[in-house]
Structure formats: structure tokens, C-alpha cells
Amino acid sequence: MISIQGKGVSTGVALGPLYFYQRAKSTIRRYEVEDTDAEWTRFKAAQEKAIEQLGELAEKARAEAGDEAALLFETHQMMAEDMEYEEAIQTAIQETKLNAEAAVTDTAAQFAEMFAAMEDAYFQARAADVKDVSGRIISALTGVVQGGIDSPVPVILAADDLAPSETVQLDKSKILGFITEGGSGSSHTAILARTMGIPAIIGVGNQLKPEYEGREVIIDGSTGSVVIEADADTKAHLLKKMEEQKKTREMLEKLKGQPNETLDGQSIRVYCNIGSPDDVAAVLGNDAGGVGLFRSEFLYLNCDDYPTEDYQFEAYKKALSDMGGKEVVIRTLDIGADKQIGYFNMPKEENPALGNRALRICLNRPEIFHTQLRALYRASAFGKLGIMFPMVTSVWEVKEAKKMCERVREELTREGIPFSDDVEIGIMIETPAAVLMSDRLAKEVDFFSCGTNDLTQYTLACDRQNADLGRFYNPHHPAVLRALKMVCDNAHKNGVWVGICGELGADLSLTETFLSIGIDELSVSPRSVLPLRQKIRETNVSLVKEKLLSDLLSDENTI
Ligand code: PEP
Ligand code: MG
């Protein structure tokens, strides 16, 4: 038995074979081939495999998001068998005697350069497509699965670290749990694990050895323990815990249909955070009142190119209609920092968390923002939509974003496309500037949603991604809690409602504080809804409020 200790960031016990995440190798071997016909046959087989995979992806996209979504993969299919592209590869193999991987790499580079040099933006964007298609053919040639899980059974997935773009592309039905060498609890990978309800452990360092692959492992997301080939006693203990967790869940099920109301009659909304329309099933399954944060950037992270208006429209429409009239707050694109997307071609930054990200990108590249807002407003006809802007620091940013919304509404009206005139507009409060300006910002919007992950990072000047900062990244810091109180007071003075959609919202040790401050909504991962409801229903706010608020503002509270 081998025991390894990490940090649990998503609770639950899971058991299964250990599987190491396969990342595509970046170096392509280059050599001269003798039998060029055999090499050409190798290429043709890989090309056929890539075309077949793309066909499957097109079908999946069609089923999940409509014809427009499938088009991207169908275009890639056509590119893979484009005559000029194929001829260039054939020449490289048969005349230059290059191995197939190198021939595809060189041809991809030539074609990408040619597309990038074209005037038309549409053709320029094809440069990324040709690289993508070629990468798929190279994977088929080398047998390296691009970031996939090539296992017939579900596994406990181990990786050095996983970028959000890698995590969203994983086949969730194949994952029982995550273990990563690095990472931090408020990273987006940890957040995704919690959203998916999958146990996860981070920070195991170099303790996982390649020879453990395929062995049975049990992980406990609440304690951070990883046990490989557990002895009988340990296994029995962990399986018992798994059973107990199942029983607790069954008990919590009884709270479905009950109000989120304290013993003394104060109500609070409990909503969910999601990253894809597919998560709506878990939102409804856990009886949440709505969606308080749909991280729309995960849609972008899941694509190989800018998602079109129709593709986005189908995804937002699906989330809204599946929620059956319950509110869905969709956050506009929040990329940058740890959420990097290749096709955005963003220059490398020294301080990406302070850089060109989120609303800043949208205001600097209005064509991207415009496409997303059109998709959002079109989808608003199918449910109750809220639109929320991330990373706000100034009033002018909100005014500019609202102007763009106005422009989109005017366009749709002119085009006779229906949309709802009841779309709430809100902002994330996740920078100290937004907190300090919340009295003014409240005059511009219908709601605030506090992003405590970033608010902690920026208030304490403490990188949320850096696992070594441990105790310094403290969302319980009085500076953060006082900020929440200030925001809430300024919002309520101006008739604006306030939610918390950062991970802190699910922290049961602070539920009484949030109720005392007067927070209107907590938006949490689907699995946290019922435990939170239980905590709310056990609380008597009038008994604790005075003390909690005076503690919060007390001179003694100086952590
Ligand atoms: C936050 O910052 O708290 C938040 C909810 O947004 P994200 O974690 O996606 O940055
Ligand atoms: Mg944030």
C-alpha cells in the first residue's frame, strides 16, 4: 500500500484505476524514409482516422448545439482531404522522402502562413484550422492521444496540472476523480471539479510515479489522501466513508422542495454556478432556484476557433430553456490569466492576472463582444436571462458595455428578431476598485455578484493560482468580509440585489455572516446546494447578527 498526501479541493471518495493524462508531445520526429509508398499509406490511414473522428465530433456537436456547431468540424473534415493540402504532403513524402509526421507538420506551416497573409479576416482565421486538423492527423500517426483518456473504463485521472481548456475538453463520463501535482484550490480546474461533483486532490508533488499507472487507487477529496493498492483495513474504512457520504446525500434529498429560509424567517436564494448547458441537469437535480453564474468562457475554451453567434445562441438557448423559466445569469467572456485561448492570439503578458482580460478584451475587441451579446439577447426570448460583466473596475466600462447592449437590442429590433425586454444587467464585484465604487456602480445596474475568488486575490494582492501562498490567500480575511458588507450596503441603498458567486458562497462557516450582512443570493456548485440549504434552515439570524456584525467591524478583528 502506498499513501500520498495532497490537498482535497472537491469532496467525495472515489475508487478506480490510476491513469496519467496524456498531453500531445510538442516535438515531432523528423527522418528520411526508404519506403515512400509505405509512408504514404501510413499517412492515408491517419488521415482517414482523423476524418472519422471529426465526423463523430460533428455529430456530437449537432446533437448538443445544432447544425451551426457541427459546421466547424465538417469544415475541418473537408480541410483534411483538401486536394492541394494532400498533394503537398504527398510531394514531401515521395519526393523529399520525409516521414509522414514531418511532412504534415511542414505542410501545415506552409498553409497556415499562406492563410495568415491573406487580407480577408475569414481566411486569416483558417490558419488556426489547418494547424488543428494537421495536429489531429499527427496524433493519429504518433498514437499520442491529444489530451484524451484512452481507457475503456472510468479512471482516476492524474496530471502535473490541468489547464481549464484541457479540463473542459475531457470526457467527463471517463473521470472518477482528479489528482494533480500542482494547482491551487481556487484555480479553475478545482472549480470545474466541484461543478462536476468529482472528488479532486491537488498538490501531491512528485509522489505519483509512472509505474503506479493502472493500479487501483482510492482518493478522499475531503482529507486529500491518495492510497494506491490499499490494504484491506484502509480500503474497508474508505469504502465505509463512501457509503456514509451516500447516506448523507440521501438525507439531504429530503430538503428538495423546501425553502431556503432561516428559523426566524429570512430567505436567501440558492443558485448554481455552471460552465456548460449540460450542467443544467445537475442544477435542477439539486433543486437550485436558478443559475447565478454561467461561465461562458468555457464555451470558448471548448472550441478550436471563435464560436459563432449561432453556436453560442444554441448553447445559451439550451441552458435557458432547460431551466424552464428559472433565472440564468450568463457572464460575458472572462478569459485571460489562467484561462488562455490559443486562437485569441493574445500577446504574452508579464502579469496576466492584471492584464488584458475579461471585460477589457471585450471592450478592446468589440466584434467579439458584439457576437456574444447578439447570441445572448437572441437566447433571452427562451427564458429568464441575466447578463453579467466580469472584472469591472470603472463606471465608464459599465456604461460602454451597456451601450453595446443597447446597440444589439436596436439591431435585433430592426431585424425583427425577438428578444426579451426583461433582461437584468449586472456586474461582478471582484476588484477593490469595484468595491470602493459600488455606490456609483449600483446606479448603473440591476445586480451585483461578488466574485470572492478574484476579490480575495486582488484585495490581498495574493495570486489565487499559487499553491505556495497557502495561508496568505485567505478569503476569510476581514478585508474581504468588510468589502462584502460595504458592497451589500451600497447595493441595497440603491435598490440593487447582491449575490456571491465565488467559492466562498459555499463555505458553511460563513453562511451566518452572509445572512447577517443581508446577501440576497448565494451561487454555488450544484452539489453544495442542499448542504447550504440545510445550514440556512438551521440558522437563527436574529440571534447571531449583532455579534457577527460587530466582530466584523471590531478593532480586535485584525488577523
Ligand atoms: C470569482 O472570481 O470569484 C469568480 C466567481 O469568477 P472566476 O472564479 O471565474 O474568476
Ligand atoms: Mg473572477
Descriptive key words:
8-stranded mixed beta sheet; Enzyme I, Chain A, domain 2; TIM Barrel; binds magnesium ion; 8-stranded parallel barrel; single chain; Glucose Oxidase, domain 1; alpha/beta; 559 residues; 16 strands
Write up what this structure looks like.
- The protein has 559 residues and is α/β, with parallel strands linked by helices.
- It folds into three domains: 2-23 and 148-251, Glucose Oxidase, domain 1 (3-Layer(bba) Sandwich); 36-142, Orthogonal Bundle (Enzyme I, Chain A, domain 2), CATH 1.10.274; 258-553, TIM Barrel (Alpha-Beta Barrel).
- The protein has 21 helices and 16 strands.
- The strands form two sheets. An eight-stranded mixed beta sheet has the order 1-8-7-3-4-5-6-2. An eight-stranded parallel barrel has the order 9-10-11-12-13-14-15-16, surrounded by five helices.
- Helix 3 packs across helix 4 (100-116).
- The radius of gyration is 25 Å and the shape is globular.
- The two termini are 41 Å apart.
- The model has no long low-confidence stretch (mean pLDDT 92).
- The structure holds phosphoenolpyruvate (PEP) and magnesium ion (MG).
- Residues 390, 430, 451, 453-454 line the site of magnesium ion.
